[in-house]
Batch of 2 targets.
Target 1
Amino acid sequence: MSYSIAIDGPAGAGKSTIARRLAQRMGCIYVDTGAMYRAMALYTLRSGIAAEDAQAVCAKCREADIEIRYENGEQIVYLNGENVNGLIRTEAVGNRTSRVAVYPQVRRKMVELQQKIAKNSSVVMDGRDIGTCVLPDATVKIYLTASSAVRAKRRYEELMQKGESCDLASIEADIIQRDRQDMSRETSPLRQAEDAVLVDSSDQNIEEVTETIIALCRQKGCI
Ligand code: DC
């Protein structure tokens, strides 16, 4: 049976970690849609245009060739033929991404690409609008969240591990700002789909959340 598992939620809720594990357990592909928007944001950063310059961003979007490939089970994002996986995880790119992701032209292009991937394979796909817009008929829909304090602390620990200097208060402020941006945009804002199951990871570890979702997938016959 072919299936799709949609995981939406705010930044830092653990979507990518959980989605990657689920895909491994279920033997399907993991589609990280944020990486596609990040590649688009990187393109605009490199071009030196302002995120608020709608015309310039949309022109760049038309000429951006964003492609997803799987190499050794890992999703690689190509921007005009260049592997940009190592360049899209910075705070600068992350903060710009939510501002570039507001444009309907940008969203339309990414959604088309995401739908095409899900049409050809079973997927675990994470993002902000997967259950509400990209895959409205997904087999399982999860809205994964956690308090902003918990999410900031996780991000802080991740950055410290990488040896990057950072400040917890400003990370939480950035997270709150990004949530606001993602939830208030006009085109497909971040919200829980009516038929999505709410999972709060504030007091649950990765294993527990994964098991909760696996149980839901079993109920729906994906496993
Ligand atoms: O999941 P992430 O942190 O890599 O996402 C980066 C930004 O991309 C996020 O602030 C909102 C945007 N995004 C989106 O608007 N829709 C998606 N399906 C995925 C990400």
Target 2
Amino acid sequence: MSDLAHLRRDFPLLGRAVHGKPLVYLDSAASSQKPVQVIDAVAEFYATSYANVHRGAYTLSDEATTAYEGARAKAAAMVGAASPTEIVFTSGTTAAINTVAYGWGLDHLRAGDRIVLTVMEHHSNIVPWQLVAGRTGAELAYLRVGADHQVDLTDLEEVIDERTRIVAVSAMSNVTGTMPPVTQLAAAAHAVGAVVVVDAAQAVPHLPVDVATLGADFLAWSGHKMLGPTGIGCLWGRADRLEEMSPLQGGGEMISDVGLYESRWAPVPHKFEAGTPPIAQAVGLGAAIDYLDKVGMDAVRRHETAITGYALDRLATIPDLTVHGPTDLAVRGGAVSFTLGDIHAHDIATILDEENGVAIRAGHHCAKPLMRHLGLTSAARASFYVYTTEDEIDQLVAGLHTARRIFGLS
Ligand code: C6P
């Protein structure tokens, strides 16, 4: 077991009670809790250095701009970007993928082109492509998911064919925890000249990610899932790819000149950041990156692998329980979805909350095609992060035994 338990004291919310029981927060795949270092950084910024950015010829605005652009540099370093200018701040993963789908897709896709996705994608990496396919006449094609919960590569060359212009894949499923072979998929995509978009919402927070190793052209992730505030996320794009993209939104900040009938854009990345950006949120994201840097992303991954292994072992002892995801810890992360007999996932979540103070997510997890592939309409999901302990897994297991009892499964 790893030694990150001491980190818990940094997370004030984890000290609270729910229904008279100590909170057990097992929903970090939906959103993570925040350490005091992030909460304080945001409060301190508002208290001492807040102003709008890139505008004022005065000290406070300079300080705010330095803090905002400093966060961009930290985000760039975190994923091995060649330059901070390859990072576009967005409101989150969803906005980042939409920025590529519309900004790159509308200009470059034609009728008959292919957009290749996998069946395990989150709706955020399906629906934008459906919308853009509808506008351009491009078609969608899917790589299937096998019985091992991994992307099925048997028809890789048939699906990623000469018509393929975009391959958009998740680096980690938010349902099964599966980590697809992104590097291999990217190589197949590049062999036919396609652009690779990686949904890293569940990857960047949980393990070291390097855009060059992945072979990505674009990478999207959210701040709120990696100890940072809501309302901020990142789109990393290779410099030449970002240059090929049109801005989605027009307004202040994103121009170099505006005439009555036409305008010129600011250089990348500002051309994609119209209007006043999420300044304090970026500062909070920077503090979250500092925090994760200090812990070390290798240590984060080691801790989660250990806690996931412990959880899978404990869950395997519960009769009638099925985990929907790989058992091999090398190819999975800490999102563990399961069903328990015929007890509805929402009932499981309610019992865990009320009886044991355990917070999990229940439902389709915004991945309906994957749920259909699994033959499910809903599942319960426990998900882990740096602050998760074995004791908390024990509370989850105790709550699941209670659920079995209540529903007469014993
Ligand atoms: N998944 C979950 O509980 P946003 O909402 O834009 O920050 O992230 C969207 C998103 C995209 N891709 C993946 C793989 C994700 O897991 C998510 C968010 C949450 O699983 C909310 S549905």
